[in-house]
Design goal:
alpha/beta, 11 helices, 19% strand, globular
C-alpha cells in the first residue's frame, strides 16, 4: 500500500485506473477500502475510464493515528487531499467526499478552487452549514468500555462500526472533537465547482440536500431512495447519478 507524508503525517492511499482523475475522500470512522473499494466505487469508476485516487484520512485506516483534536480540523484534512494531488502531480481533479469526507472536500473547494473541477458531496446536506459535525455523544460511545455500555442509538451505530473495522477508537474520538467545524453560508456560496449533493431519503445524519443546494451556486440534488446514511454509500442510484454528473461535466 503506497504512502506519502504531509506535515510529518504518514498517509496511505490508492491510485488505480487511467484517464481523468477523481479523488475520493471517505467518511468518519471509515477508510478507503470500506467506503470506496468494498461498495464498488473504485471498480465502477475505473471501468468508466477514470483514474481513481483515494486516501485514508489521518487517524483512519492505514494512515498515522493522531490523538490531539486540533489535528483533525477539516481544513487541515483538506490540505492532506491537496498534498496527495501534489504528490501524484495532479493540478486539478474531480473530487467526491462522503459525510465527513464531504465536509473536507467542500473545504478544499473553498480554499483551492483551482484544484477542484467538479464536486460531489455525498452523505452531507444542510448540516454542512447548520451542524458542526457528528454529535459529541459518538466520542463518548467510542471511548466506552464496550458496546454494551452505549445506549445512545447513533453512538451504538458508530461504535459497532468502529469495532467491526478494528479502528483506533481513541484517534476517532479525537477526530470527532477536532473536526467539529461549521462552514458559513458565505463560505459555501464561494464554491465555484459544479456540485452534486447526494443524500439518502432516510438519512437522518446528513440534513437536507434540498436545503443546502440553494446555498451553492448551480448545485444539483440527487435523492438516493429509501437509503439511510450507511446504506446510501454504495447504492446504484448514487453511482449512476454520479457517473452521469461527471460525464456531463466532460
Amino acid at each position: 500500500m503506497p504512502h506519502f507524508s504531509h506535515d510529518g503525517i504518514r498517509l496511505a492511499y490508492l491510485d488505480e485506473g487511467e484517464g481523468e482523475p477523481i479523488v475520493l475522500v471517505h467518511g468518519f470512522g471509515s477508510n478507503k477500502e470500506i467506503n470506496w473499494v468494498g461498495p464498488g466505487w473504485v471498480s465502477t469508476l475505473t471501468r468508466a475510464g477514470r483514474r481513481v485516487v483515494a486516501l485514508d484520512n489521518r487517524g483512519h485506516g492505514d494512515s498515522e493515528k493522531l490523538y490531539e483534536p486540533d489535528a483533525y480540523d477539516p481544513h487541515l484534512m483538506a490540505g492532506d487531499v491537496a498534498a496527495l494531488m501534489d504528490h501524484l502531480g495532479l493540478p486539478a481533479a474531480d473530487v467526491m467526499g462522503y459525510s465527513m469526507g464531504g465536509r473536507i472536500s467542500a473545504c478544499l473547494a473553498i480554499a483551492a478552487p483551482e484544484r477542484v473541477r467538479a464536486l460531489i458531496l455525498g452523505g452531507i446536506g444542510i448540516h454542512l452549514v447548520e451542524g458542526a459535525g457528528l454529535p459529541i455523544t459518538i466520542a463518548d460511545a467510542l471511548l466506552a468500555p464496550s458496546l454494551d455500555d452505549v445506549s445512545d442509538p447513533m453512538g451504538r451505530t458508530f461504535r459497532a462500526f468502529a469495532d467491526q473495522t478494528k479502528s483506533d477508537r481513541r484517534a476517532l474520538a479525537a477526530c470527532i472533537f477536532g473536526s467539529r467545524r461549521t462552514l458559513t453560508r458565505e463560505e459555501v456560496g464561494r464554491i465555484a465547482a459544479p456540485t452534486l449533493i447526494a443524500v439518502g431519503t432516510k438519512d437522518v445524519v446528513s440534513g437536507s440536500a434540498h436545503r443546502l443546494a440553494p446555498l451553492i451556486p448551480g448545485a444539483q440534488v440527487l435523492d438516493i431512495p429509501d437509503r439511510d446514511h450507511m446504506l446510501a454509500v454504495g447504492d446504484k442510484v448514487f453511482k449512476q447519478g454520479a457517473l452521469a454528473f461527471l460525464d456531463m461535466r466532460g
